[in-house]
Amino acid sequence: YEPEAVSLAAALLPRLKSKISGLLLVPSDGGRFEITVDDELIYSKLKTGRFPDHADIARAIEARASRGGGG
């Protein structure tokens, strides 16, 4: 899933770089592609069966950051 992870990171960084303190890609196995913000799971490919939409993930991170997290 490396190409999808790198593509998502490339899409998120320009939009979120002033709102987040870091972005970490962690290899996994078993078909997992999960996104967490401050230990809160905001997306799981295992639950949805598909890769995330970049804009949806950016909005979810922005919403989480506006609640005082995201960094």
Describe the protein.
The chain is an alpha+beta fold and 71 residues long. It is built from three helices and two strands; from the N terminus they run αββαα. The chain has helices at residues 2-16, 45-48, 54-66; strands at 34-37, 40-44. It has a two-stranded antiparallel ribbon. A hairpin with a 2-residue loop joins strand 1 and strand 2. The longest helix has 15 residues, at 2-16. The protein starts with a helix and ends in a 5-residue tail after the last helix. The mean pLDDT is 87.
Outline the fold blueprint.
Layout: H1 2-16, E1 34-37, E2 40-44, H2 45-48, H3 54-66
Antiparallel strand pairs: 1-2
What is the global morphology?
Answer: globular
Radius of gyration: 12 Å
Q: How much helical structure, as a percent, in the residues?
A: 40-55%
Task: Give the helix tally.
Answer: 3
Instruction: Please tell me the overall pLDDT.
Output: 87
Q: Biggest β-sheet: count, sense, barrel?
A: 2 strands, antiparallel
- Strand coverage percent: 5-15%
Q: List the strand order in the largest sheet.
A: 1-2
Q: Note poorly predicted spans.
A: none
Give the class from helix and strand content and strand pairing. alpha+beta
Question: What is the β-strand count?
Answer: 2
